[in-house]
Design brief:
The chain is mostly helical. It is built from 5 helices and 2 strands. Strands 1-2 form a two-stranded parallel sheet. Helix 2 packs antiparallel against helix 5.
């Protein structure tokens, strides 16, 4: 499976601020597609998990896609070499089963 929006158009990157969802055209698009309360709670859990482990939220989101029980390939669009390196490093991230379950939880 190829995951084309593995970072949810920037929702799991640093491009989206849930406290200012109308700040830009991109933020409005992200809010329209992913801006539910349940997704904001997921984003907070992902960001907290990432912060506690010295990772980026993008790395955690990509690692989540790659953790599926079936073969997956993530497609990302990076605006810099640093962001590309960050995404490539996600391939080495291993998520605990409890973390994966928490990211799936509806809250």
């Amino acid at each position: 499976v190829f995951v084309g929006a593995s970072l949810a158009f920037g929702f799991f990157a640093d491009a989206y601020d849930p406290w200012a969802p109308r700040a830009s055209f991109r933020s409005r698009r992200i809010a329209r597609c992913f801006g539910s309360g349940a997704n904001h709670a997921r984003l907070a859990r992902v960001r907290e998990y990432a912060r506690e482990r010295g990772l980026s939220a993008a790395q955690v989101a990509l690692a989540f896609c790659l953790t599926q029980s079936f073969p997956t390939h993530c497609i990302v669009g990076c605006s810099s070499r640093a962001k590309l390196a960050d995404c490539v490093a996600a391939g080495e991230v291993r998520l605990e089963p409890d973390a994966v379950a928490s990211f799936l939880r509806e809250e």
